[in-house]
């Protein structure tokens, strides 16, 4: 296949499909263009094809159809050791009989780099991950987080321009994981490397990435920056998968410009933004984020449709209040409000009216 390059593309997947058994496609039609220096996360449930995509990019699996290009050159034409790709996995497998420094020196030896240059690079990368004092230790003498830092250093030591990470923090406890998320992002930004990061943890994806590709069933369901993904999900899968979300089901009654009028299954009418509904009569799932629901009438448009709700449960969470309501037959309707001095603590049994801005309420596929 002739090499072609989209403008600004460093990593490019074009119409990529993958089947392991010649029958079922586990990657169905992957199209992705990444500029140099981007931190992109592939996020999705287990089995959605994330690791397969990473393995094809690394060259450990071949695409059944389509083309993968690195800096304009088809991956198939580059031998793996010349791809300049560093990799970090959850099971990072440092060599147990080697010291930390030897573990880091090894990939450089394989690349026939001389001793003094090796030492220099190892020192530099150890400092980068704040492990300068640990070069002489063996992996067994390090904590899990320290071992993970060395695994990261090993992927960075030969100055790869592209680093692939597959659930690298999965084995760490919450606090360390959050710390390492921050570290990895900082190091990647400082070095200007391009990162493809795989995780099933949405918080991790949202906090680390320039863009997130949400995978389901071998396809990218949406590719967007974190705020766009959270605030403007393009379909029901993404709305449910990212963050907490309230769903109300109904039928589109009319669409006028930017507003859809939806009749909920219990008969009430609400205003929404039509996202992937196109005509009256279509069934829809309406999606509203818990923090965008308003029960203080003075903050709503005078002509906004409101809904009756009954307070079922009030949960004090410190920084926020989380209140569960019954709304249009849905007993798991959650609202979140900031714990401000003048904020009302809604008591179970109270009848209230809720509303929202039409643009915060998205009519999606049913
Ligand atoms: N080496 C393999 N041989 C056959 N099937 C595989 C292989 N690796 C993965 N699969 C299948 O491909 C699908 C996608 O897997 P994978 O890419 O590992 O997903 P993820 O990383 O999103 O969990 C799954 O159904 C999985 O069982
Ligand atoms: Mg995987």
TrEMBL record:
Pfam families assigned: ABC_tran, TOBE_2
Gene Ontology terms for molecular function: ABC-type polyamine transporter activity; ATP binding; ATP hydrolysis activity
Cellular component GO terms, alphabetical: ATP-binding cassette (ABC) transporter complex
Role summary: Part of the ABC transporter complex PotABCD involved in spermidine/putrescine import. Responsible for energy coupling to the transport system.
Assembly behavior: The complex is composed of two ATP-binding proteins (PotA), two transmembrane proteins (PotB and PotC) and a solute-binding protein (PotD).
PANTHER family, A to Z: SPERMIDINE/PUTRESCINE IMPORT ATP-BINDING PROTEIN POTA, SPERMIDINE_PUTRESCINE IMPORT ATP-BINDING PROTEIN POTA
Protein known as: Spermidine/putrescine import ATP-binding protein PotA
Source organism per UniProt: Sedimentitalea nanhaiensis
Upper lineage: Bacteria, Pseudomonadati, Pseudomonadota, Alphaproteobacteria, Rhodobacterales
Name of the gene this protein is made from: potA
């Amino acid at each position: 296949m002739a090499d072609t390059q989209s403008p600004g593309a460093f990593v490019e997947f074009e119409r990529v499909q993958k089947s392991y058994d010649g029958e079922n496609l586990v990657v169905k039609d992957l199209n992705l263009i990444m500029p140099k220096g981007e931190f992109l996360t592939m996020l999705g449930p287990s089995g959605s094809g994330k690791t397969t995509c990473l393995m094809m990019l690394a060259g450990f699996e071949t695409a059944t159809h389509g083309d993968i290009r690195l800096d304009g050159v088809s991956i198939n034409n580059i031998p793996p050791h010349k791809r300049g790709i560093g990799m970090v996995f959850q099971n990072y497998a440092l060599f147990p009989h080697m010291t930390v420094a030897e573990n880091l020196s090894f990939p450089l030896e394989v690349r026939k780099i001389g001793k003094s240059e090796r030492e220099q690079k190892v020192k530099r990368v150890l400092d980068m991950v704040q492990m300068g004092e640990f070069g002489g230790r063996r992996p067994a003498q390090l904590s899990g987080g320290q071992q993970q830092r060395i695994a990261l250093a090993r992927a960075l030591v030969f100055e790869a321009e592209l680093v692939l990470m597959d659930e690298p923090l999965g084995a760490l406890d919450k606090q360390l994981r959050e710390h390492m998320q921050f570290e990895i992002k900082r190091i990647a930004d400082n070095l200007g490397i391009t990162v493809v990061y795989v995780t099933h943890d949405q918080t991790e994806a949202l906090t680390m990435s320039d863009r997130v590709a949400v995978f389901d069933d071998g396809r990218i369901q949406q590719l967007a920056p974190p705020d766009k993904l959270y605030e403007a999900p393009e379909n029901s899968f993404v709305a449910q998968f990212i963050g907490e979300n309230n769903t109300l089901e109904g039928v589109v009654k009319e669409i006028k410009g930017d507003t859809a009028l939806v009749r909920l299954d219990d008969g009430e009418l609400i205003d929404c933004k039509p996202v992937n509904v196109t005509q009256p009569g279509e069934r829809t799932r309406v999606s509203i984020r818990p923090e965008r629901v308003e029960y203080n009438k003075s903050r709503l448009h005078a002509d906004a449709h409101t809904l009756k709700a009954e307070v079922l449960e009030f949960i004090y969470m410190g920084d926020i209040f989380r209140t569960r309501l019954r709304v249009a037959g849905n007993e798991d309707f959650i609202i979140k409000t900031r714990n401000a001095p003048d904020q009302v603590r809604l008591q179970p049994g109270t009848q209230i009216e809720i509303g929202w801005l039409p643009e915060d309420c998205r009519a999606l596929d049913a």
